[in-house]
Amino acid sequence: MYGGNRWKKNKTKLEEKIKAVIGQIESQIKSDQREIDTIEAVKPIDSKELKAKIDELNNQLQDPDKSTQREIKKLKDDHLPRLEKYEKQLEILGSRGSYSKTDEDATFMRLKDDHLKNGQLKPAYNAQISTENQIITHYSIHQTPGDITTLEKHLNSFEELNGVQSKEVVADAGYGSEQNYEIMEEKEIDAYVKYSFYYKEQKLHKKKIPL
Questions:
Q1: What's the distance, Cα to Cα, between the start and end of the chain in Å?
Q2: What is the pLDDT of residue 44?
Q3: Could you tell me the sign of the dihedral formed by the alpha carbons of 176, 178, 183, 189, in that order?
Q4: How far does CA 157 lie from the centroid of its chain?
Q5: 1-14: per-residue pLDDT in tens?
Q6: 181 Cβ contact list (under 8 Å, min separation 6)
Q7: Cα separation of 197 and 202, whole Å?
């Protein structure tokens, strides 16, 4: 399982190291130490910028000492490949929270309990299906685990495929949100979709009813 938060933290730490190394090397280049700007917040640096910076440092250094040579070599042979790796991972990840090593398009999702009532976190896809009179009229595949975020894309792809939009949508509370209600209203769809806290409110209401 590949998780985006861990990569972002690792990438930030690596960028801090890169900034520190570059700062040390530049301190040798400048004869007047007062010209060196203090490194404040670490700004993101991509692999192209780092490659250009390494070339710039090599051109500026006339006779670097062994310590500086080692630092530049470390930037090129260690930090640069790691930075490229993190960039590739985050590009694959996109807006998701995770992806599978064996299937990069799949996202880790909490699946239904097994026979031992254990929650199963596995790489999966979220499939959405539309039906009318028990006949499948459309399907769509999503990389997000929650149903609530799939409705708009599903409705849009339905309209693109069929050239018309559904007049009515019936769905459970998993699709109920203010944003989804607004989307269906804009599309002039009669929505029969419970809001997300509907069932909880029903349970609370039953508890309050005196025997």
A1: 51
A2: 79
A3: positive
A4: 22
A5: 556 677 778 888 88
A6: 191, 193
A7: 9
- Rounded CA-CA distance 72/64 in Å is 10
Q: How far does Cα 24 stand from its chain's mean position?
A: 34
Residue 16 banded pLDDT, cuts 50, 70, 90? confident
The conformation of residue 37, written as its DSSP 8-state character, comes to: P
pTM, entire model: 0.61
Secondary structure of 54-106 in HEC code, one letter for each residue: HHHHHHHCCCCCHHHHHHHHHHHHHHHHHHHHHHHHHHHHCCCCEECCCCCCC
The residue among 4 and 155 whose pLDDT is bigger is 155
Q: Is 209 exposed, middle or buried (0-12, 13-18, 19+ CB in 10 A)?
A: exposed
Name the residue with tokens 């991509």: 46
> Comparing C-alpha atoms, which of 159, 206, 210, 166 is closest to residue 189?
166
Q: Which residues pair with 124 in a beta bridge?
A: 107
Q: What is the mean pLDDT of residues 152-178?
A: 93
